[in-house]
Amino acid sequence: MENERIRSEADLSQESRWYHERLGIRCVAALEKKNFKARYVPDREQARSVILETIEEGASIGFGDSVTLDQLDIWQELRKRGGHQIFHPWRMEGRPHYPATLEDPYLVEAIKNCRKALDSDVYLTGVNAITLDGKLVFVDGLGNRVAAVIFGPRRVIVVCGDNKIVPSLDEALNRCKQFAGPMNVKRHFLKHGMEEAPCGETGFCVDCRHPRRQCCYRVIVEWQYAPRIEVIVVGETLGI
Predict the structure, then answer these.
(1) Could you tell me the domains of the chain?
(2) Could you tell me which of 171, 155, 154, 152 has the C-alpha nearest to residue 163?
(3) Phi, psi (5° rounding) for residue 92?
(4) I need a surface site. Which of 11, 111, 160, 228 has the fewest CB within 10 A?
(5) What is the distance, to the nearest Å, from the Cα of residue 154 to the centroid of all Cα atoms in its chain?
(6) Residue 24 binned pLDDT confidence (cut-offs 50, 70, 90)
(7) Do residues 165 and 233 touch, judged by C-beta distance below 8 A?
């Protein structure tokens, strides 16, 4: 009996599910007050199903760079389904590709896809942080993702793991600078051979002037006039 009690005390899975659900539902309620269409789902499988169900057959689809979407395998699922024009700047011949240098000829093709994505029926992206009072916070290197979120595509679907929910705008901006920025720089270096900005070495932002700086544009979406932007909050850790 004592061993059973110890194992039970060590298992916090039920408590964790409860906490993540409460956090996600609170975030969704705040987003709805800001005129966003928002919903909470408990896991990535349900998030994937919701996205696939709500994208109409034959719709053109644009993508922003997003580890969250990679973890959902949503790009692969949409390609398998067929019937869509898909504009993903960072996929080439079925695999991830990020220009290692600014002279890489693929960068020209990637930017063409960025522009096409701005006129897509549906745009899919992650987000760097969401505040508990319903602000979406994005930091971008090239600017294609934040441009599409603000204006262009007819619908924008933002997917967010609950690890990105923070209490305040200050904490959201700090998360972008001190965690998401260095992690993305290191990801691009380790997986795609990109030259590292200084935070890839130091592990924290130094407000650099590096040509491959990843935090050039900062956008805070506080409200929307027309209900373009939809947010799916997922009750698990996703993305960076």
Answers:
(1) 2-234 (3.40.50.10420)
(2) 171
(3) -135, 125
(4) 11
(5) 18
(6) very high
(7) yes
